[in-house]
Amino acid sequence: MTKSFNYHLNGTGWAEVYFASDTQYIRFEVSYLSDPLPDLFEGLYRLDNNKSNEEKIHFAEEPGEHSLVILRQDRDMIKIEIYWSDEWEDVSTKETRCEKKLVYADTDTIKNIIMVICKGIDRLLERLTVTEYKEKWHMFDFPTDRYRKLRELLN
C-alpha cells in the first residue's frame, strides 16, 4: 500500500518524484519536456469514476522516462507499476517499441492512492504558489482545475 508521494520542483524545468510503500521506494527526476501532473490527476479521476481500467502517465527525463501504470484489479483495488526505459515511448501510438524494466510494483486502493497523491501535492503547494510553480516548471501551469476535481473525490 502506498504510504508516501512527493513531487518537488528542484530547479528550472526539473522535478523529483518519490513513491514509497512499507517495503520499497523509488525516486526519480522528471523534465519539463513532459507534464505528468495533469495526466496523473485526470487518470486517477477516471479510475475512481469507473471511466477507465488502466492509466499510463509518462515522466520524461533526459534521456529516458519512467512510466507509471495503474491497473484496476477489481472494484476498489489497483495495481501500481513503474517502469524505466532509456527511450521515450511514442505516446501518439499504443505500441511500445522500447524495452522497459519494472522498477516498482505495489497494490493499493484507489481511494488511498488519491489521498496519498493529494497529500504530496498539498505539500508542494505549501512551498510554492501557482505563479512560482509556473516560473520553475517553465512551460506549463499548475493544473488547478484538474487538481480541484481530484481533491473533491476525497470528500
Entry keywords:
155 residues; alpha+beta; 3-stranded antiparallel sheet; 4 helices; 4-stranded antiparallel sheet; Secreted effector protein pipB2 fold
Please give a quick description of this structure:
With 155 residues, the protein is an alpha+beta fold. Helices cover 31% and strands 37% of the residues.
Q: What is the CATH architecture annotation?
A: 2-Layer Sandwich
Strand order of the largest sheet: 4-5-6-7
Question: How large is the count of helical segments?
Answer: 4
Helix content: 25-40%
Rounded average pLDDT:
93
Q: Quickly give the structural class.
A: alpha+beta
Uncertain residue ranges: none
Number of strand segments: 7
Domain count: the total is: 1
**Approximate shape:** globular
Measured between the Cα atoms of the first and last residue, the distance is: 21 Å
Structure description:
By secondary structure, the protein is α+β, with helices and mostly antiparallel strands. It has a single domain (2-129), classed as Secreted effector protein pipB2 fold (2-Layer Sandwich). It has four helices and seven strands. The chain has helices at 36-48, 110-127, 130-137, 144-152; strands spanning 2-11, 14-21, 25-31, 54-60, 65-72, 77-85, 101-109. Strands 4-5-6-7 form a four-stranded antiparallel beta sheet. The protein has a three-stranded antiparallel beta sheet with strand order 1-2-3. α1 packs parallel to α4. The longest helix has 18 residues, at 110-127. It starts with a strand and ends with a helix. The mean pLDDT is 93.
